[in-house]
């Protein structure tokens, strides 16, 4: 008996028929009802916070408030939909808009334009409160706060350090370096200086040139993740007063919000995110076929590569990964695609150790994944040269990809798992859950 499988590919779908007996499972996130009334959900958590008094009790009339918010690269967090409710709650506590400053957590990203602010935070927020930007390269904006146990020199934006009260905002999803996003990441890299970001992010590399990514810096791992633990230590130096973070469904809608203590509330949000997007997989497959999730998630290789990082976790040792991604803008952004110009992984790693960037780390990690697990990319024919330079195998169709997989495995019969939303779902070994 055959089963027809359809996977998102840009704005279209690719379809293939597979023997039912060869299919192990569909690896999908838990179905979650999205939030229907965002304002109501936000007010509820602000007044019933985790491990903290309510926001109205935390702030006092006359306080100078700083809200740290993600930049346009995290536009999917949809700050524009919940920041107005946070501002209204602060107003109800006696804080006037003129005493509220939003600090854009650029980290090492480019500065925002006025239009970027409007797109990221919404017209109402732009009109109501002052917005300043924390740009890591502008060293005069940062003050030295000490050094972590791991040797990271800590520089934090002066607007944050001089605030009467600091509120962290953001979104919690799995993060391929820090375990989970949100929470303390508003501080580092968000409002940290360049030297601090570089030192912390280098913890994602294994000790010793040539050893590649640190295997402990991965999706879902907090207990032994040196990057995350360093971030926690730095956030504790800042002593944020409150947190409001969003949690998302597998489709990217709001699943809920958490508020309260900057660490305890965030940790609760991480557990919620893991329950939605972390999928127990007890039987790794010979071949995993994944979709990056279609447009916009496969607009370029950088976005679509999340599916490779996730789906490889469901492949058995010696197995094959097939990922479908249209990549109509294959080489965007340039600060990612340029890393594939290095002729070897060793050279790529050397350059990354000299000047760390997240796109560079993703490029290095992809190279090491492809080195241990062959990755076949189904994409447009014009993308073949780029993808092969990136260390991937190329196929023009799912049928061709399966033929390549059969040749690599040395047999025509093999067990297959399907990941329709590879960019949003993280396979987890059953024993670790």
UniProtKB/TrEMBL annotation:
InterPro entries from the entry?
LarA-like, LarA-like_C, LarA-like_N, LarA_C, Ni_dep_LarA
Single GO MF annotation: lactate racemase activity
The UniProt record lists the LarA-like N-terminal domain at 10-209
- The Lactate racemase C-terminal domain covers 283-425
Q: What is its EC number?
A: 5.1.2.1
Cite the Pfam families for this sequence: Lar_N (PF09861), LarA_C (PF21113)
The protein's UniProt keywords, in alphabetical order, are: Isomerase
Name recorded for this polypeptide: Lactate racemase
Taxonomic lineage of this organism? Bacteria, Bacillati, Bacillota, Negativicutes, Selenomonadales
